[in-house]
Design goal:
- The radius of gyration is 23 Å and the shape is globular.
- Strand 3 and strand 4 form a beta hairpin.
- By secondary structure, the protein is α/β, with parallel strands linked by helices.
- It binds nicotinamide-adenine-dinucleotide.
- The site of nicotinamide-adenine-dinucleotide has 29 residues, from helix 6 and helix 7.
């Protein structure tokens, strides 16, 4: 059983001040899986002080970019060496099917570090404009808060640009994935990141909020639910602290009338059910042309009936357990609300009888869904899709945009140009044509209540930089 004694603060492993521990429970066996320290407010004070000292007095922000790149490259190589073991740990901790963990959980962090290393090599941190020098300088001490669904991918898309630009970081993993958060700390420590530059302090929401409000923090980069993000934004707003938010979504899959339905539903196997439905951009509102509605529902039901549900460590598994009992309760509540509001369960809807333990939910398809229903408006974050009928392309766009969220979406069509035209009308941060993957060169983020700011791409670096103009005499 993995056991960590200390938080990673100021380059040392420090026992938690209040002696609190997180006992992690396996989502598969419902038995203890490992133990990690839990940070209290006093630990947050220490971590912020360490990051502050490293930023104000330490070598990190004063090093050349090449020197910081050398450290991040060591992180990248050590991470790649340990990737297989880390993927197993994340699968055990939060139930991500091992068949996708290699790319989703541990492949992406390596790609992200590689990308930002190359970007920073040629980035102009200083330029001459008129008689001025325009400088881009690190924003300072960054608090990075992430959820449990893709913990390392979400951390590295923050840590790589923040650290390469010269910031120092207090990283708060979610309690559900505290162990892998501390493994990340081990890797940075081994790579020789100077003391205080990265501090890793797993904790719950209360200590997270204390960190957000800490006067020693210059910027907060938050990924999580819209409810928590709203709280984070209001705290930062009142302190005029910089912040970025990557929040929830309710993305639409617009199936155009020319689409080949059998291949679309095979695409939705990933695009809607990835990580057992626990990905912020999963396409969980399926918009089907009215005259092909029955065909779409039937094809979806047929597809989910062939999905393998089971032990996430088994490479054949496509749908694993949900992360926690709380998450399964939430998904079950939504399934009940869907039925109460008049939608029909076309497939799934319950706990799979094949699984005696574990927080499983069958892949579920709701039909007869009106877009105003709760299951079409709220983010469920489980393997549940709602199929909504539309009349024509304009109506499909209207429904896709009828959401308080604006994170992702997809267009499925035999005519890619037509799909791109329709994508231009969708008010979300990213739209995928026929299931095309997101990539690190392109910015990622939300419109509306799905967030503020962008990660990935050059936009993801800009978030960690302040601009300073030095007016020089002619
Ligand atoms: P959550 O908001 O409950 O928690 C996310 C993180 O924030 C955790 O580390 C938690 O401890 C911390 N936290 C919670 N309340 C806080 C507060 N008031 N102050 C400071 N920290 C606080 O979310 P969750 O249920 O753990 O994660 C799922 C959510 O994350 C979904 O809504 C999903 O869409 C979203 N998400 C978004 C993206 C994106 O890039 N847009 C990516 C992954 C997940």
């Amino acid at each position: 059983m993995p056991e960590f004694e200390g938080l990673y603060i100021g380059g040392r492993w420090v026992p938690p001040a209040a002696g609190d521990r997180i006992v992690q429970i396996s989502p598969l066996t419902e038995q203890p899986l490992g133990v990690a320290p839990a940070a209290s407010n006093a630990d947050m004070d220490l971590a912020v002080a360490a990051a502050r000292k490293a930023f104000d007095e330490g070598p990190w922000p004063r090093m050349s970019v090449e020197e910081r790149i050398a450290v991040l490259k060591r992180v990248r190589d050590l991470y790649a060496d340990r990737a297989a073991g880390i993927a197993e740990l994340i699968t055990a901790e939060m139930g991500c099917p091992s068949s996708i963990a290699g790319l989703l959980q541990v492949g992406y962090p390596v790609q992200v570090i590689d990308y930002y290393v190359e970007l920073c090599r040629s980035w102009e941190f200083e330029e001459k404009r008129g008689h001025s020098i325009v400088r881009q300088v690190p924003v300072g001490v960054v608090a990075a808060i992430v959820p449990w669904n893709t913990p390392h991918s979400t951390f590295t898309v923050k840590l790589a640009p923040a650290l390469l630009s010269g910031c120092t970081v207090v990283a708060k993993p979610s309690p559900e994935t505290a162990l892998d958060g501390l493994v990340l700390a081990e890797i940075f420590a081994e790579a020789g990141v100077p003391e205080g530059v990265l501090n890793v302090v797993p904790a719950g929401a209360d200590s997270g909020e204390y960190l957000v409000g800490h006067p020693g923090v210059d910027m907060v980069t938050f990924t999580g639910s819209t409810a928590a993000g709203s709280r984070v934004g209001s705290i930062c707003g009142s302190a005029i602290r910089r912040f970025s938010l990557e929040l929830g979504g309710k993305s639409a899959a617009v199936i155009l009338d020319d689409a080949d339905i059998p291949s679309v539903v095979q695409g939705l196997r990933f695009a809607s059910f990835l990580n057992s439905g626990q990905v912020c951009t999963n396409q969980t509102r399926i918009l089907a042309p009215k005259h092909r509605y029955t065909e779409v529902v039937e094809a979806l039901c047929e597809m989910v009936s062939t999905m393998t549900v089971g032990d996430p460590a088994d490479p054949a598994t496509e749908v694993g357990p949900l992360v926690s009992q709380r998450q399964r309760d939430r998904v079950e509540r939504y399934i009940a609300i869907g039925e109460q509001e008049g939608a029909k369960i076309a497939a799934g809807g319950g706990r799979p009888s094949s699984q005696p333990t574990g927080w499983f939910i069958e892949p579920t398809v709701f039909c007869d869904v009106d877009n105003s229903m709760t299951i079409a408006q709220d983010e469920i974050f489980g393997p549940v899709v709602a199929v909504v009928a539309y009349d024509d392309d304009d109506h499909a766009v209207e429904i896709a945009n009828d959401s308080r969220y604006g994170l992702g979406g997809g267009v499925w069509t035999a005519d890619v140009e037509r799909g791109i035209d329709l994508a231009r009308r969708i008010r979300t941060g990213q739209v995928s044509i026929n299931g095309a993957d997101n990539e690190v060169v392109a910015p990622f983020g939300g419109f509306k209540q799905s967030g503020l700011g962008r990660e990935s791409g050059p936009e993801g670096l800009l978030g960690y930089l302040e601009t300073q103009s030095v007016f020089c005499p002619d």
